[in-house]
Design a protein that fits this description.
alpha+beta; 3-stranded antiparallel β-sheet; two-stranded antiparallel sheet
Length: 159
């Protein structure tokens, strides 16, 4: 369980961030691994951002949603909630997500979208992935319906 917690929170992008004491983002541990808040706005991005601002993507204030050439992606609610979390997932599905980069580990599923570095998970052993899974199943459920990812990016208005 401790190994799973260590691996899960290492680079955690699924816990919303808030301003810390010195302004730097810190995890909001009251919303541990609950993903992008259902009522938070999505970030905006335009193809001009790459040329004019030299950015490939932009995130929202809580660092749980990202927009770029792929569209808009939202950090998934990884709590064990039945209605809005991963309660319906199995350990095998979780391992297949890490191995294939496919949504819910389905062979014909959509790709897991950036910035999720699922390809780094491929380097973990099955024992590591099972430890992460055990940790995820141990944390309290948080009801939070994360929006579905969008292929279309809301464009910034022309200046």
């Amino acid at each position: 369980m401790e190994r799973g917690k260590y691996l899960a929170v290492l680079g955690d992008c699924h816990t919303p961030k808030i301003s810390g004491p010195e302004g730097a983002p810190v995890p909001d541990n009251t919303k541990l691994l609950s993903g992008h808040a259902a009522n938070s706005p999505a970030p905006v991005w335009s193809p001009d951002d790459m040329k004019e601002k030299n950015v490939a993507a932009t995130g929202n204030e809580s660092l749980t949603a990202w927009a770029g050439p792929w569209g808009v992606s939202f950090a998934t609610n990884l709590t064990r909630g039945k209605e809005t979390g991963i309660a319906e997932w199995t350990e095998e599905m979780f391992i297949q997500i890490a191995r294939t980069g496919k949504h819910q580990g389905q062979a014909n599923g959509r790709p897991v979208l950036p910035p999720m570095p699922w390809f780094n998970l491929k380097e973990l052993t099955d024992a590591d992935l099972k430890a992460i899974w055990a940790y995820l199943k141990s944390i309290r459920p948080i009801k939070n319906q994360v929006p579905f990812p969008g292929r279309r990016v809301r464009q910034r208005p022309a200046v």
